[in-house]
Design goal:
Distance between the termini: 20 Å
CATH class of the largest domain: Alpha Beta
Structural class: alpha/beta
Helix content: 40-55%
Number of domains: 2
Radius of gyration: 26 Å
CATH topology of the largest domain: UDP-N-acetylmuramoyl-L-alanine:D-glutamate ligase
Number of helices: 18
Shape: elongated
CATH superfamily of the largest domain: Ribokinase
């Protein structure tokens, strides 16, 4: 799914209106019908519903939705916020259509929203370019204070599409129904907390125009990921499935090596060798019998660099700790590597403390930080939009792929492309989940997938494993090993 900016969405609307051709009021009706189609079946017809509408086109959507759902037996109240004498043309048309069909109230600050089960938020749309103030802000505050479920039309009111809105009230939606494409603000923690669960409905905007509209942003969807996953030929052997070297573990952190190793094997690597301290020998030989070990001379940490000529990929970082000999070993691995590497966890912390290592990284190496690790690597930011910009710049400057782990993990490529993951859930906020991701991505690169496709496939499969685990375990009880256990089902889901 392409992610467009506000001005690009407006351009897609206008192009569709001109070239379909279709009247703008009919396009609004089509959007309302798409919302209604999504709504019916999800919510009981006995619900008490308020459509809180501004006087622009987002409010016009709300009026049309209220009219259509009322005709299907739902119990609606329309609340209008703002001066209808200054309304948009299509809002005025829909106001005439709904008058006499649905009860209408003008908003005033003493109006209570607490009697409603559902509030449909149609105050502002994606074109908002200034903070919500006055009665609009008061109405948003009333919605947020109510105990109702808030469903935002296209985007929560008061939230900007692709920039941070300074000040002003913002609706805290439980669910957002976005028209045609998701918005950039959906994917960033600061703004995504207002969006929460979101769905995209097709309102028939011109597909050719959207396809040809240039945007660096894409959201991963199942069809795109399926197109990247390759089927194995009949005469396939373990050598064809790749040889990986995983450098991981230190005293007290051998669990990270176990998790990364098991995930690497479960993700399909043909032959796995783990370079670990001597103290990890019995642990790994017992927990991961499928892996071969290349033991370090040190008992408790990584101090050496092993021969890498026979390996297709090196993954390094899970559980290695912060030791001076380990710093030196990482540098030597970077210097002798001729192919992209996968670096995570303490490998990233070592890079942050030794920034002179960064220019030495092989092109298209994959770094998988969480926000704290990335801040240590790239420096602070003032908001998530700036962080995304810094992430893109970091990828380009260092010629690396950055997988910044979050609810919607962002993957930036050196050429400026940005991808957002759409799988995963809060239950994956658990120790060791990042080690599992490292193992998965390492396995995919080792099997011959390009570094970028390995990162995209890896984060999607990792999140999908978490979603499958949540179905039986809930998002309170998922642990990292559950992600590994559900990985085969994630592959199977993509192959069906």
């Amino acid at each position: 799914m392409k992610v467009l900016r506000a001005e690009q969405i407006r351009a897609a609307d206008q192009y569709t209106i001109k070239n379909e051709p279709i009247k703008s009021i009919d396009l609004m009706e089509r959007a309302a019908e798409a919302f209604v189609l999504w709504f019916i079946g999800r919510y009981p017809i006995t619900s008490s519903i308020a459509a809180v509408c501004g006087t622009g086109n987002n409010g016009g959507d709300g009026l049309a939705i209220a009219r259509i759902l009322t005709s299907k037996g739902f119990n609606f109240q329309i609340i209008i916020v703002g001066d209808t004498k200054k309304s948009s043309k299509d809002f005025s048309i829909n106001l005439k259509r709904v008058t006499g069909e649905v009860p209408i109230l003008d908003f005033h600050p003493d109006l209570s929203f607490r009697s409603y089960d559902i509030i449909i938020d149609g105050i502002f749309g994606s074109g908002l370019n200034k903070p919500a103030t006055g009665d609009h802000a008061k109405a948003i505050q009333k919605m947020n204070e109510a105990k109702a479920e808030i469903i935002a039309i296209d985007i929560p009111s008061g939230l900007a599409c692709d920039s941070k809105m300074e000040g002003g009230a913002i609706a805290k939606a439980n669910t957002t129904v976005s028209f045609q494409v998701p918005k950039l603000s959906f994917f960033l923690p600061e703004t995504g907390n207002y969006v929460n669960d979101w769905h995209v409905v097709d309102i028939g905007l011109n597909e050719k125009f959207i396809l040809e509209t240039d945007s660096p942003y894409q959201a991963l969807d199942p069809s795109f990921i399926r197109s990247k996953l390759e089927k194995r030929p009949k005469f396939f052997h373990k050598g064809d499935a790749g040889r990986a070297l995983l450098v991981s573990g230190s005293l007290g952190k051998m669990g990270a090596a176990v998790l990364a190793s098991r995930a690497c094997l479960k993700a399909g690597i043909g032959l796995l060798t783990v370079h670990c301290p001597k103290s990890g020998n019995s642990i790994l030989q017992t927990a991961v019998p499928e892996a071969m070990l290349d033991l370090d001379s040190a008992d408790n940490f990584i101090s050496e660099t092993k021969s890498i000529e026979s390996y297709d990929i090196i993954g390094i970082g899970p559980g290695i700790g912060m030791h001076e000999p380990t710093d030196d070993a990482l540098r030597r691995y970077i210097e002798i590597a001729k192919k992209p590497m996968v670096i995570d966890a303490d490998g990233l912390n070592i890079l942050a403390e030794n920034p002179e290592f960064l220019p030495l990284l092989p092109a298209n190496s994959i770094l998988t930080p969480h926000p704290g690790e990335f801040q240590r690597l790239a420096g602070p930011w003032s908001d998530d939009f700036e962080r995304l910009s810094i992430q893109g710049y970091f990828s380009k400057k260092n010629n690396v792929i950055v997988v910044l782990k979050n609810a919607h993990t962002s993957i930036t490529a050196p050429d400026g492309r940005v991808y957002f993951n759409t799988t995963g859930n809060p239950g994956m906020a658990t120790a060791g989940a990042g080690d599992v991701l490292t193992g998965i991505i390492t396995a995919l690169v080792g099997q011959g997938y390009s570094p970028l496709n390995s990162a995209l496939l890896g984060v999607y499969l990792h999140g999908l494993s978490g979603d499958l685990a949540k179905k039986t375990l809930t998002d309170f009880s998922i642990v990292a090993t559950d992600l590994i256990d559900h990985l085969p089902m994630a592959f199977k889901a993509l192959n069906t």
